[in-house]
Amino acid sequence: MPPSILIAYASRNGSTREVAETVKRIFDTDGEPAAMRPVLEAKDLTGFKGVVLGGSIYRAALQQEAMLFLRRHHETLQQVPLAIFALGPIKNDPDEWARSRRQLDASLAQLPGLRTCAIAIFGGVIVPHRLPHPMNQLPPSDNRDWSAIKAWARTARAALAQA
Ligand SMILES: Cc1cc2nc3c(=O)[nH]c(=O)nc-3n(C[C@H](O)[C@H](O)[C@H](O)COP(=O)(O)O)c2cc1C
């Protein structure tokens, strides 16, 4: 049986891909194995009964490749349930978390009718040497909470199954 859940991710600097890998591990451990692909390679959603999209927030919006995925598959994703996570806040400041969530919501509002059944913001990562000047002057940080990520993956798996 081919996998019925697709985990599609867009990751410029790798941190979202690592979260997608963890989400996949949870799906694989708790149920049937999921397929996982970068968004640009996820061209055909035929046969999938649920989709997880992972992206990150850049410059106040969901990353372009993730938006392209949602636009390309907008019609299908009004039928097939969708769980979305996005990385963003690099500090544990409630205002920063609320801002990232607003940025994600504003991006998703451009695509009405998505069958979103689970949605989450996770802390983001800064790896200075991967960034161009002047961002490479930022201090390194990793604000991902792996327990929260794994807990959300379990919630998302159940929500996709019930949707
Ligand atoms: C240039 C730049 C701009 C960013 N802009 C935002 C932003 O507007 N909102 C936000 O919540 N996070 C922002 N972030 C944080 C990223 O979402 C975070 O670093 C994330 O982990 C990047 O994911 P990736 O490693 O998969 O590319 C920004 C990061 C960088 C480097």
3D architecture notes:
The chain has helices spanning 15-30, 64-72, 94-108, 146-162; strands at 5-9, 35-38, 50-58, 61-62, 82-87, 116-122, 125-126, 141-142. The protein has 163 residues and is an alpha/beta fold. The chain has four helices and eight strands. The two termini are 21 Å apart. The strands form two sheets. Strands 1, 2, 3, 4, 5 and 6 form a six-stranded mixed sheet that branches. Strands 7-8 form a two-stranded antiparallel ribbon. The protein has one domain: Rossmann fold. The radius of gyration is 15 Å and the shape is globular. α1 (15-30) crosses α4. The mean pLDDT is 96. The protein binds flavin mononucleotide. Residues 11-16, 56-60, 87-90, 100, 103, 124-126, 131, 135 line the site of flavin mononucleotide (FMN). Residues 11-16, 56-60, 87-90, 100, 103, 124-126, 131, 135 line the site of flavin mononucleotide.
Using brief descriptors, characterize the structure shown.
Rossmann fold; 163 residues; alpha/beta; 8 strands; two-stranded antiparallel sheet; six-stranded mixed sheet
